[in-house]
Amino acid sequence: MRILFHGTIVVVLTALTQLGGLAWLLSLRFRLRLPVFLLAYAVLWGGAQVVAPAFGRVPLPCTGEVLRQQSWVYCVMLRNFVTPDLAEVADDAARSVAARFPGTVTLALDGSFPFGTGIPLLPHLSHDDGEKLDFAFYYRDEAGYVMGETASPLGYFAFLRAGDETCPPVWVTLRWNMGWFQVLNRDLQLEPGRTRALIAAFVDDPRVAKIFVEPPVAAQLGLQSDRLRFQGCRAARHDDHIHIQL
User: Fold this and answer.
1) Residues 67 and 51 placed together within one structural domain of the fold
2) Among 31, 56, 84, 203, which residue has the least CB neighbours within 10 Å?
3) Of 10, 32, 8, 11, which is closest to residue 23 (Cα–Cα)?
4) Phi then psi for 49, rounded to 5 degrees?
5) What does pLDDT average to in each consecutive run of 10 residues of the chain (246 residues)?
6) Contact 209, 240 (CB under 8 A)
7) pTM
8) CATH assignment of the domain containing 136
9) DSSP annotation string for 44-113
10) 61/69 Cα distance (integer angstroms)
């Protein structure tokens, strides 16, 4: 039972953070396990910031005036790493939107882990090579654009449509409606001008191969392009965020 317990913790921490499982294994030799785990993870986390660029991954900024991660959670869990090319694409697009709409902050969501290729970033079906990155929508309230804020506490699962009329029910799917999560979301509305400008910036960037966003969202924003794709009925819904890949 002890092996099963610790083995489960290692698997879960590795799946969520890549290096958390290693930190837990290192802590098993000490009586004060939790403090040692936190210390070990902090050391591994700091090492990843320094070493990952040598393996072709760079962290997106956790703080920034134009582009930053939507939540510190993505930074702490080492889910904010992308290739240098994708980091440049993200920065260019964010600056393009900010130039058109001064004061705009673009919020990134899941990127990839700092090391390795082919290692899934759950619950995504991809995000395993540093060449995929998600972005939050921009939002507004009655007073207008709300800077650096999202309807969802994580940037995901604040769906623009109450139901899913696009796909029939299929078995084995990540196209969750997340009904239980909706009570956590704020009553904010999509800010169309900035969201349209961000997607258009990706459409116009020859480095971007695909952009996933639900077809009704693209139609609502008046956008059309061969690069704008529907991700399929077994992948997660994309009426809550934007996915791009090189």
Assistant:
1) no
2) 31
3) 10
4) -60, -35
5) 92 96 95 94 98 97 96 97 98 98 98 92 88 98 96 94 70 82 94 98 97 93 93 85 97
6) no
7) 0.93
8) 3.30.1380.10
9) HHHHHHHHGGGGT-EEPPSS-SSEEES-HHHHHTT--EE-HHHHHHHHHHHHHHHHHSTT--EEE---B-
10) 6
